[in-house]
Amino acid sequence: MSFFSKHKEKDESTFEYSYSNKHALNYSQRYQAIFVGITIFVCSALSLYYSLFLKTPFYYVALFYLPITLAGFWYGVKAGLCSAFYFSILLLLNSYMGSPGLLLHEIIQIVIMMLIGYAIGILKEKDRYSERVIEHQAYHDLLTGLPNRLSFEDSLQKEIEQAKEKKEKLAVFLVDIDRFKYINDILGHLVGDRLLVQVSKRLKLVFSENALLARSGGDEFLIVVPQIIDEQQIAEISKKIISCFKKRFLIQEREVYLTISIGISVFPNHGEDAKSLISNADIAMNMVKGIEMNAYRYFSTEMNKDISEKLNIANKMRQIVEEKRFDDFELHYQPLIEVVSGKIVGVEALLRWNHPEEGLLYPNRFIKVAEETGLIVPIGKWVLQTACAQIKKWQETCYPSLKLSVNISEQQLRDKDFFNDVVSVLDETGFDPSNLELEITETVAMNNSGRNIEILGELRRVGISIALDDFGSGYSSLNYLGTLPINILKVDYNLVKEIPFNIKNSAIATSIISLASCLDYEVVAEGVETEAQLMFFQQHRCTYIQGYFFSKPLPPDELETLLYDEQSNVAFVEN
Questions:
Q1: pLDDT digits (tens, 9 = 90+) for 373-395
Q2: Domain of 41?
Q3: Same structural domain for residues 69 and 170?
Q4: How far apart are CA 85 and CA 121, in angstroms?
Q5: Using alpha carbons only, what angle is made at residue 63 by residues 62 and 66, rounded to the nearest 5 degrees?
């Protein structure tokens, strides 16, 4: 059964309403056909009566215009012309039997009837074409020409009904292009649109006619494959989808390589209606997205538990923000060590949550939820204010030039009041901007790049340092370093952890340090945990290190003890 030949219902609310609406339209067409047939019969009978008995050809010709008009108006050009042709023959017969001397007049009448039937039919055809265009646009994606999500849900529901009758399985695949927003921001939306068109063409080639393919919106595509036998078949289909993305895409002489994340749900295991199957496939896709590239995952009930946990965390954090109970959070500080001297020169503020039921929670449990809900904006402001006040206290008592590093999320950078909030915190706490470092990731910097770069530039102008975190991972590109208003590179922990035994990672780290030196950037190596790693970064003149080799993140009182300890300023000590 081809997806592209399936009938599309006109109502989007429920399948039942669409079904009844369709049959109401059929009944209307039947009544129209009956009415036209009766009109033709009556007009034909009256024309014979007028012609044979009353001998008034000029009057009965007017009877023909009504059925011709109705046929053309309701059924189009062919019906209008056929009706006009029928009455033309009838007119000639009547003229022959009744008044043969008026042949020229009859020919003129025939021409008029043909023109009426054609003209009204053309108007009807244009109206029908407009309706078809509107209906197509309502149920299809304008960019790729694929069915849209609404159409997909209707067709999927029909496939589910058939699978129920035949006791078969079907699988729903939700395909999401990784970091597509990044491509739009860097290469432009025109390139992004052309890329989506090419993606849709490749996906069409992968599947046979019995598969349903649609664009869900944005960078997501939906596919349903009926008559699934086992998980091995699903795995093979997933690998086929992934393989079609391994070949490069060529857009405006640019080579673009894409990776994807696939979420899979199976009927009837993961849902018995279209909406639940699509929703569960989406949940599975989000679980794999950001963790692996070119990977797929099946939906499981444990994923629902994860969703429930996220909702619970979001609700509790929202209560904290609304009630301004920020004391439920606390900050730990990890020292930043100068490699040459071994002295503490700064600290990085790291958020912790004293959860009422689960105890101390680390950021991996709640930061992503805070970002997704927008709660990171007020929480981030509290972090900055609390950290600045704490470091200012330490500056006044023991470390006059102690630096502070704070992580900034994309949601904070997007907030229209972010710059003013930072300046306000600095004024309130009396914290010197030159001692503040804000850490961002490359993705944060380049998403919505124009505005983000503008705000980062304003922060630099007031004296705040900007660090590019996790450098050397993901899509790090040397092309964009010159456009970003940064002055610090932080080498990614995943790169550092295998140094010096991983030759490739060591070479990359060496190149980053050399590049930073040429650009007059400082370099921080994150996650230094061994003496061998320390020696590597000492030999290659890295500026600073962080990691458990010197100290883990500590609560304020423990770090304060470390700051006052004279030995901590002159040697590397393993905790």
A1: 889 999 999 999 999 999 999 98
A2: 3-139
A3: no
A4: 14
A5: 100
